[in-house]
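Support reply, case 0932

Customer input (verbatim):
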Amino acid sequence: MSQKPKSAQLPTCPSCEEPLESGDLFCGACGYDLSVVPPRPDDRPTLVMNGLGPAVPDTRAPDTPVAGAPVATAPAAGAPAAGAPAAGVEWPTVSGTDSSGTPPPQLPEELPGLESSGSRLPAHPGDFELPAPSALIRDSSARDYATPENTPPENPAQENLAQESAGPERAASESAGPESTHRKATDPRTADPGAALPAGGKLCVACRAGRVDTDGYCENCGHAQPRERDHLEQELGAVAAVSDRGLRHHRNEDAFAVSSAALPDGSPAVVAVVCDGVSSATRPDEASAAAAAAANESLLAALERGTHPQQSMHDAIVVAAEAVNALATAPGGRDHDPHRHQNAPACTIVGAVVASGLLVVGWVGDSRVYWVPDDRGGPPARLTEDDSWAAQMVAAGLMNEAEAYADARAHAITGWLGADAYELEPHTASFKPDRPGVVVVCTDGLWNYAEGADEMARALPADAARRPLHAAQVLVGHALDGGGHDNVTVAVLPFALPSQRAGSAYSSA
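Our regenerated output:
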């Protein structure tokens, strides 16, 4: 490409580098005042390194000593003395001697930068000077910290002027003391485990000294605190449930609800509801929690009114679906940010009711209910059928159960609660066992490690009917020992036969 010819080497404007003509007082391009610009030196200053001066001709006689320099043996004829300083340079006086009586050499960093003429070098652009050492405070860990409050001002007059311009706000903050702006961190090794809980917050489980901030992290040690839903346990008389985050997921998206109610005839009814949030959906943890709470409340109200347990279960699943659907349009749902693609919150649900010798189950999705008799000589059974791709393949006769559940698509569900569900088809079933046993209500986080009814019976402790909470803990531990790839939730309901006199208020459907 063509270029403009270059002009002769003329002085240039120090602001815009525009060539200047002789006699110009102002730059013709930017108007810079050239009268305030000092003339540019013809050469650059030479730095003095390691005590050697610039290479200038020495006009002194070879034997002429330099004032202040140590006397040494004369070098060869015509050679300068080794380490001799340049003429006219006043070097710092070296103090002290080494073991041989010779003064120690001056280190380069101890010498000021000098020009060839012996004058001190001006500061370069961008250089800065470190502030004077400030007062130190010492904490329990023997570390020294400098605080601005303890640093004396370089110019008291300027400091007073800055305080007056800052107004009363700064004065009020400074009068509060250094703790108002610089809070001393607590060493967790020396913290008192029995210290009182910080006002307005939770105590850190790691250092036992700091307050947990709203983001879930300790303000003292920065440790992430376990979420409340990471591990939950509840025991309510004849029913118990345990839920755990597992070993691979970052949060627990399962939820459960256990309760009991009194039927109109005064006999008890025990309820357990377990929900599993769909991980591929938006806010699955909120969906499972909303569904479990809504279904539980609906079941209790219906049973106390005397509604048949199977009808109560069907209605409870419908109410749970409506609660999950409402999340799609709630603040934070799909309508909250129209520019962001989100699918609707979704979850599965499974529940069981034990009342007057009747066992009723209901479900949508792939969470399951197992029956395990107290007499392990009797056969256990799975009481639900999955709404999943694998179950459809088995039902259609296209695969056997082993082949279907070995496929990568096995756990793709075909039924769920959520605004984007194809259609809601609650499944319910009623049973009237002829022997006592235990009902296990669980998510796939458990049955993935005990899929068959026989496997579930082997994992369930023999004393599960007497210790339901312990049994639930053992089953969750079984899943975690197997890998804990998913959230694990299980509820254990002991089933006892009613007395001969009481009979049953309901007939099995």
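We compared this against your earlier run and they match. Two observations from our side: The CA atoms of residues 380 and 449 lie 16 Å apart. Confidence is low (pLDDT under 50) at residues 1-8, 134-151, 170-183. Please reopen the case if you see a mismatch on your end.
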